[in-house]
Design a protein that fits this description.
about 325 residues; about 80% helix; about 0% strand
């Protein structure tokens, strides 16, 4: 009886165990769809976040660990390639050489602008008939040069933002102030160059001194010979005086030609390079030099605009 009772009890105890296993397998089967749904929702969230951001990392980096399966949580996240982590090559930081050029260009623009301010202020003040008029002209010249300096950058910014009418007005104002500054530069350069040339041309060289002494001796001899009347020897002395005067004029002309050695050397160089086909005169080179001296101090605004856009790129 004891054996039969034990045999009948053991199966009754194993039956609930089998039922529990079945219930546990059922829970595992029911949990699998939940895990799959959670994984699908996490993948959808990761794809939405990766599409909205500019990062090139995979979507698995954005999935919280609690939404991943047990096998995926324990696994190490994939390492992004160095090229992806560093970003695209177009967004690399600019090299020091690329940064140095715009800075140097801006320094040159400011240096030319300071020279232009000084030139315009000096020439404008020299036009005044009184002290008050001179200071007023000085203020006008400095203000016009400042507008010519900063207006190109302001007009370009307005054009980029779509304010085309305001930008066109700005460029028109810049052109007006630029022409005013150039005329002031022409006046400054012409006055100083002419003063220096005249000072050099009026200097007394040994050739001029000798010619002057010879003319004085010829005039003295003529006066002594012609005192008693006009005769053969008097006319000879007068001819000698005319000859000595011509020699003095030739010596003075030679000094005047060397008063501007830059123009003389430039003319010789152009003639030599062109094989004699181009023969500019002193006036041609003087006009070219005058235009360059008037224009260069006024291009500071353009250089500042170019340096600013180069720095942005």
């Amino acid at each position: 009886m004891a054996d039969d009772t034990l045999a009948s009890v053991i199966p009754l105890r194993h039956a609930p165990l089998k039922k529990r296993n079945r219930k546990g397998s059922g829970r595992a089967r029911t949990n699998r769809p939940r895990k799959r749904a959670a994984k699908a929702a996490a993948l959808a969230i990761g794809e939405a976040e990766s599409s909205s951001s500019a990062s090139l990392l995979p979507a698995e980096f954005l999935i919280p660990p609690e939404f991943l399966p047990a096998n995926d949580v324990d696994a190490e996240p994939p390492v992004a390639p160095p090229s992806m982590a560093a970003g695209p090559p177009d967004e690399a930081a600019p090299t020091p050489r690329r940064q140095f050029a715009p800075v140097l260009l801006s320094i040159a623009a400011l240096a030319l602008a300071s020279v232009g301010l000084t030139i315009n202020g000096w020439f404008a003040r020299s036009l005044g008939s009184s002290d008050i008029a001179g200071w007023l002209f000085l203020a006008v010249g400095v203000a016009a040069d400042l507008v010519a300096l900063v207006m190109p950058s302001c007009a370009a910014s307005l054009w980029q933002t779509g304010q085309r009418a305001t930008a066109a007005v700005g460029w028109a104002v810049w052109l007006m102030t630029f022409v005013f500054a150039v005329t002031a530069g022409i006046g400054f350069a012409s006055i100083n160059i002419s003063d220096v040339t005249m000072a050099r041309a009026s200097r007394v060289t040994p050739a001029i001194a000798n010619a002057q002494a010879a003319l004085t001796d010829a005039m003295t001899a003529r006066d002594r010979e012609c005192k008693s009347g006009v005769g053969k020897f008097c006319r000879e002395r007068e001819a000698a005086v005319v000859e000595r005067r011509q020699m003095l004029d030739a010596a003075a002309a030679a000094v005047g030609r060397t008063a501007d050695p830059q123009s003389d050397a430039a003319i010789k160089l152009v003639t030599w390079v062109s094989g004699g086909m181009l023969r500019p005169t002193m006036e041609d080179f003087a006009m070219l030099r005058l235009v360059l001296l008037a224009l260069l101090p006024q291009i500071g605004g353009i250089l500042l605009l170019v340096g600013r856009h180069s720095a942005r790129k």
